Amino acid sequence: MTATEASIPPLPPGEPDPSTADPHVLLRGYLDYYRDTLLRKIDGLSEEELRGSRLPSGWTPLQLVRHLTYVERRWLCWGFEAEKVPDPWGDRGGDGKWRVPDGVPVADIVAAFRAQCDRSREIVREARLDAHARLGGRFPTEEEAPSLAWILFHLLQEYARHVGHLDVARELADGATGE
User: Fold this and answer.
1) Distance CA 173, CA 105 (A)
2) Is the pTM of this model over 0.85?
3) Would you say 155 and 124 are in contact if contact means Cβ atoms under 8 Å apart?
4) Full DSSP string of the chain
5) Where is the segment annotated Disordered (predicted)?
6) CA 136-142-144 angle, 5° bins
7) Taking burial as the number of CB atoms within 10 A of a residue's CB, which of 20, 34, 95, 99 is the most buried?
8) Cβ atoms within 10 Å, residue 129
9) CB atoms within 10 A of CB 77
10) Gap between the Cα atoms of 178 and 57, Å rounded
11) pLDDT in tens, 101-146
């Protein structure tokens, strides 16, 4: 092993192969990487830690999972596909803060997240990156309709930011750091 090889850290689990050059494959791969990372970050947290907050803003890890479920739905189902989506902002309360309705089991929130990710993958699988969002859903005019590439990059930055937030929440909860 050369000195250069020894200084290159290994890839985190699930990251796309570094030889991949296809932007569609990279975007899908990194979105899946962050989706999986989100689930790894909440794995092992107690019900109390999932539903409680250690942060001044008051958001909880479970609220974050539900929020990202709705983010995917807003951008890909309602946005890109222009599907009729009941209550696209249902992750927020009247005060604009994320919420999880009382009594909803953690398993149901995680299952909804997984199902939405599956639906998002289905939408993106064969779509072209230069395709623009259909009109009639989130975007009423052509001028407002972003490309799929833009939407996927937006989702990627949402995940990167929020998984970083979850890093901090997890460290405060039980000291766990890293992937």
Assistant:
1) 20
2) yes
3) no
4) --HHHHHSPPPPTTPPPTT---HHHHHHHHHHHHHHHHHHHHTT--HHHHH---STT---HHHHHHHHHHHHIIIIIIIIS----S-TTTTB-TTS-B---TT--HHHHHHHHHHHHHHHHHHHHS--TTPBPPTTSS--SGGG--BHHHHHHHHHHHHHHHHHHHHHHHHHHH-----
5) 1-22
6) 85
7) 34
8) 16
9) 20
10) 23
11) 999 999 999 999 999 999 999 999 999 999 999 999 999 999 999 9
Please state, as a whole number, how many other Cβ atoms lie within 10 Å of the Cβ of residue 18. Answer: 9
Nearest to 174 by CA among 56, 60, 41: 41
* pLDDT tens-digit map of 44-84: 999 999 999 999 999 999 999 999 999 999 999 999 999 99
CA gap 74, 108 in Å, rounded: 19
Asked if pLDDT for residue 1 goes beyond 50, the answer is no
Residue 160 one-letter amino acid: A
Residue 70 CB-half CA count within 13 A? 17
Report the alpha-carbon distance of residue 30 to residue 66 in Å, rounded.
Answer: 20
Q: Which amino acid is at 9?
A: P
